[in-house]
Design goal:
mainly alpha; single chain; 3 helices
């Protein structure tokens, strides 16, 4: 029996034991199998951490992980991590936008102060 696969991997048979890192489907979903694991939770944590403390330093890695998770979840409709990944992506972009606006505001403030400094006048 050199050309036949092992009995647990034959076509039409369900897997008997799920892998440790996969999310099982509910029985009412009409599909057999498991969802692929994602880093959506970590992406959400990094994006929220960007709002609270670390600004762009954690928002960019959170955005990268969220985009990777969205790629995985878009291939599997009904994936339970799709909402987490989308929320992480939105929060990451908001943090990046606020950081850019903050840097521009500081630059404008310093330019205004330098332009109005009497010691700098010719």
């Amino acid at each position: 029996m050199q050309g036949t696969p092992p009995p647990q991997q034959q076509m039409g048979q369900a897997w008997t034991q799920p892998a440790a890192n996969q999310i099982p489907l509910n029985s009412g979903m009409g599909m057999q199998g498991y969802f692929a694991p994602t880093q959506a939770t970590l992406a959400l944590v990094l994006s929220i951490l960007g709002v609270v403390a670390c600004s762009i330093c954690t928002a960019i890695p959170g955005l990268i992980l969220a985009n990777q998770a969205l790629t995985i979840t878009s291939d599997q409709p009904g994936h339970p991590d799709a909402g987490l990944a989308k929320a992480a992506q939105i929060i990451g972009w908001i943090v990046i936008g606020i950081t850019i606006l903050g840097v521009l505001a500081y630059g404008a403030m310093f330019a205004f102060l330098i332009a109005n400094d009497p010691a700098m006048a010719p």
